[in-house]
Amino acid sequence: MAPVSSQVSRRASPLRAAAARLEPAAYALLRVAFGAILFTHGLPKALGTSHGSMADPMAGSIRLIDQVMGLPFAPQLAVLVMLLETVGAVALAAGFCTRWVALAFTLEMIGICVALGPTWPWIDRGIEYPVLMAALAAYVVVRGGGAYAVDGRVPWAASASAASPS
């Protein structure tokens, strides 16, 4: 009779093989979902519509940048945030210039964490969501676009994204 550890590893092999086959598609799904979620935060800013409890998300962004973060040119920076969360989110979902866009999202989420922190309770506008999004964006910076990304199909996009692994 074979030891238990060898029985477990034999049973796990088909699962590992399936996971290895599905990993590129699963990563693409993660990247697309990440872009879609970010897009839902940028679109209301672009359209001037409400988003959840925020009647005017663009005004909320301007207020956060100006009053909480104390940065100059708050309206202009809010427009850049809106562009990142719309155009950048679509680029991220498509895997276009993936590392650069993900780096911009990493910096945005770190900025949000600094502005809103150190509050952790999710019920009171805590920073759990931006911390998770910053970690995910940092992972995408390291991982690149993946097999199902525009980066791998357009030569100049691949070089701009530092040759994403497939």
Structure description:
With 166 residues, the protein is mainly α. The chain has 6 helices and no strands. Helix 3 packs across helix 4. The longest helix has 44 residues. The model has no long low-confidence stretch (mean pLDDT 87).
Properties at a glance:
single chain, 166 residues, mainly alpha, 6 helices, globular
Secondary-structure map with pairings?
Elements: H1 4-47, H2 57-68, H3 74-94, H4 98-116, H5 128-143, H6 155-160
Which H/E pattern describes the elements?
HHHHHH
User: Helix coverage percent of residues?
Assistant: over 70%
Q: Could you give a short account of the major beta sheet? A: none
Q: Tell me the overall shape.
A: globular
Strand content: under 5%
Structural class: mainly alpha
Number of helices: 6
